[in-house]
Amino acid sequence: MKNRKIASFSVSAIGLGCMNLSHAYGPPVNTEQAERVLLAALDHGVTLFDTAALYGFGANETLLGKVLKPHRQKFTLASKCGMQGVDPGNGQKVRVIDGRPETLRQTCEDALRRLQTDVIDLYYLHRWDKKVPIEDSVGALSDLVRQGKIQAVGLSEVSADTLRKAHAVHPIAAVQTEYSLWTRNPEIAVLQACRELGAAFVAFSPVARGFLCGAPLDVANFDAKDIRRSMPRFTPEHHAANLALLPAYHALAREAGCSPAQLALAWLLHKAPHIIPIPGTTSVPHLLDDLAAADVQLEPGLLARLEALINQQTVAGNRYNAQANSEVDTEVFG
Ligand SMILES: NC(=O)c1ccc[n+]([C@@H]2O[C@H](COP(=O)([O-])OP(=O)(O)OC[C@H]3O[C@@H](n4cnc5c(N)ncnc54)[C@H](OP(=O)(O)O)[C@@H]3O)[C@@H](O)[C@H]2O)c1
Fold first, then answer.
1. How buried is residue 270: exposed, middle or buried, by Cβ count under 10 Å (0-12/13-18/19+)?
2. pLDDT, tens digit, for every residue of 16-70?
3. C-alpha dihedral sign at 159, 272, 142, 112
């Protein structure tokens, strides 16, 4: 596996997004299957594992702690704070954005315990809590670096302006934001800002939450808890329009000699050397398919045709609904 850089860490060019093992696109997978995926990733050269306090409301960090503890020296561990499950008093946790310094400190303590580690290598603020100045949240993370509890600070779904304000408080090692052929918002300003500041750009949902993979998704039969149900692009109406893009997309993958998921990942790797995609999967065969994208070479002419086929203008539906949009700070196309 080729390597890329996040601050002083040399990480595999493709990392593993671990959310899907505990949360998001259906019920959590069983522990044995999750273990198979995590250990196969290690065996095949993945050295960047991405989790968060939010995922499975702590269960994903607990899973990684249990499975990866014996291998802790072999990889860069990234987690996130500032968005987590909170019990309002009825025993049912709900998702809450809270970037207050005292909350971030407590979340980090909980994460270190769940992850069974002394230090988290890269700790992101999962969302900027707009009720708290970004300088205060990043100041708290900077204190955690000084205390040796985390090594580097990251941000997720922020604008270039917020990134610069944060970077003035403490060097930002990475920005993690959705970026794929069908979600191009980072191209407006954040990719360039990261390049200027020396921050890595970690691309989440890089295979478009499964849309840019092999078989068309069966959106009508998504699990009741599948978060794609709330995303405009996956409503039956918009999905039907987007499906029309797939035959030409699959033809480009055949021409490039790779799978559809590999085409989506290889496109990201070709965009710039500071971009690191973190696909998520519950399946070892899908994982191996994704990782092989690091070796796919794409010709400039094919890249141009690919970008013309799938982009913000050719896709139907917004990536997020109004509520989720109000929680992010990212620039959007006018
Ligand atoms: N910072 C944030 O706010 C944020 C938000 C979302 C996600 N993330 C991070 O980013 C990671 C990845 O994002 P994501 O999971 O939302 O989206 P993604 O990686 O674009 O897509 C995941 C989906 O694609 C399918 N898939 C992956 N590789 C495949 C392959 N080769 N062939 C067929 N299907 C394939 C998976 O299904 P199978 O399980 O069947 O393979 C899964 O349903 C997450 O795990 C998480 O760590 C961060």
1. middle
2. 999 999 989 988 899 999 999 999 999 999 999 999 999 999 999 999 999 999 9
3. positive
Gap from CA of 331 to ligand 1 centroid (Å):
22
Report, as residue numbers or ranges, the catalytic residues.
Answer: 55
Superfamily of domain 3-209+265-296: NADP-dependent oxidoreductase domain (3.20.20.100)
In whole angstroms, what is the distance from residue 303 CA to residue 293 CA? 15
Give tens-digit pLDDT for 249-283.
999 999 999 999 999 999 999 999 999 999 999 99
Mutate to test the pocket of ligand 1, among 16, 81, 122, 213 (most ligand atoms within 8 A of CB): 213
The closest residue, in CA terms, to atom 11 on ligand 1 is: 17
Give yes or no for residue 37 CB within 6 A of ligand 1. Answer: no
pLDDT at 1: 86
pLDDT-based confidence at residue 112 (cuts at 50, 70, 90): very high
Of 300, 275, 297, the closest CA to residue 179 belongs to 275
Q: Whose CA is nearest to atom 45 of ligand 1?
A: 17
All structural domains of the chain with their residue ranges? 3-209+265-296
Instruction: Flag whether the pTM goes above 0.90.
Output: yes
Between strands 48-50 and 16-17, the pairing is parallel
